[in-house]
Structure prediction request, 335 residues.
Amino acid sequence: MSFWRRNRKYWWIAGVTLGILCLCMGAVDGQFSIIWKKAVMICMECIGIG
Amino acid sequence: MKKLRLGVQLLFTIITNGYMYGFLNGKIYQGSLKYVCMPGLNCYSCPGAIASCPIGALQALLNQRGFQLPFGVLGFLFLFGSLLGRFVCGWLCPFGLVQDLLHKIPVFKKRKRLPFHHVLKYGKYVVLILFVGIGSAFLFGGFAKVPAFCKYICPSGTLFGALPLLTANESLRSQIGGLFFWKASLMLFILFLSVKCYRPFCQYLCPLGAIYGLFNRFSLVQIHWEKDKCVSCGACERACPVALSKMEISHSAECIRCGRCVEACPEKCLHFSSASAALKSAKDI
Prediction:
């Protein structure tokens, strides 16, 4: 526990690394195409119609 | 600092909603920038939006057939959260800007918090779990592809997405029903409340604020409090728009890093800094 507390100032680096890793995994999994397909069509739920 | 923050908020809102053609024709941007998420809550159905909303994208991935971890969006959230924490809320969120501007209207006696704040502040986590996360799958018909937060709650979608689109697009306008009136009423209630109370949506309902709040303790951008210099005058606590004590400033999940405490401190013992400097001072307390 004290190890984690002592090194808390470096957690953001771990967070950024994890973020980049997740982005890579998302890219490999093709998740950005899903996001793009959803984002380029008018989202009926978002505008309160669908 | 106030003017700088307002300038950054305005500039970021204009840049991330810079597709003017969409506003004129009631259509949305369909370019490749929509592969990426922007840091703040900004509906991707806003005609001007040039990137995706992280909460909308998160729901889009969670609502896919068969459960899969939404790595693509988690990556952006980890990245923005670890670097900025709720600095995003204070400086980069377009809906936060709208609430800030409404709160400047000089009517009503202003409040920093709503009654029962200590209970209500957990509302954003409830929204995150029930309407965005796994709970929405069970509450709204299995993995039945309902982006519950966007559909039933998101006032940003109504303000930035629905209103401009419905104004410019007649075929959409003809499809308005009860759901739209529910969302419009909720949006008006939140906007009206923003005139009285500081950022009620951010404090009590925003799932993105809930996520970034979890990063506040260790994000790169921190507010550094030099205890040795502090004369305990209370100026920072009076200036804090979300009524945090000086011990809570920066570390609390509620701190949006607006910098008003930094500006108010007569001894200059509060300032923006990196995580390592802030933690060094925390150890001295």
Notes: The longest strand of chain B covers residues 222-225. Strands of chain B lie at 222-225, 270-273. The CA atoms of residues 20 and 107 of chain B lie 33 Å apart.
